[in-house]
Write a structure and sequence with these properties.
Largest sheet: 5 strands, mixed
Structural class: alpha+beta
Shape: globular
Radius of gyration: 28 Å
Number of helices: 3
Distance between the termini: 84 Å
Helix content: 25-40%
Mean pLDDT: 86
Length: 238
Amino acid sequence: MEEDTLKWEIVSALTAVVSLVVSAIALYVAFAGTKTTNQIATEALKTARQANEISLGLVREPAVLEFAFSDQSRFTFDFTDPTILKEELKTIVTVQNTGKKAIDAVALEIIGIVGLTQFLSNPMLEFRSLPAHSARLDLRAALQPQALAHIDVRKYLLTYLEKLSSQLPDRNGTYSTVVNVVLSPKAANESTPSPAGLSVTTNDRRLITIKFSPAGLESAEAKAALQGNDVAHRVYGN
């Protein structure tokens, strides 16, 4: 009899534990579902408010220009061989109009990043006073929504490297540097380029790695690329 009573108490205890575990799981699932639903509702409300503000003319629909690809091989350039600087549209970045407004110009800002410029013969050497370079490209044809464009970035990168080379100790040495390139598009009906803002996109900036020698900046190919008035580009329809 006592043995039966003990078994019954054990079964009752196990049943209670299982019930508590099931209740806890159900509570977590309900909480997670509510949290997800709230997040979706918040994002939907935010989008609706933005659309309403745009429709009322309180804010303008931003032009959005993004880098079309993310694989790093497209953002790594080797300028140690000047022959790569001879041909147009070989050193390119590809951008895409992911917004709703046509774009007819783009401003590019090239910013050096402290700690990411190295003298390959002496990697411990530090370069902390890094330059920046800003440029604007007026497109030959408007970049329509979802359309792509190739931009030849030789001149922009070489201009930055010229500014950087003045503080490098060995002009015949080989260096590696990383720059942050940020895009600011100009909508066809706007007067100046304007960044879309981090609330719209974070894909308007990329790190570009360049391997180079300051001596190479004095080559005929580099000088020709730097002195050219036009920056080659090609706009593709969607």
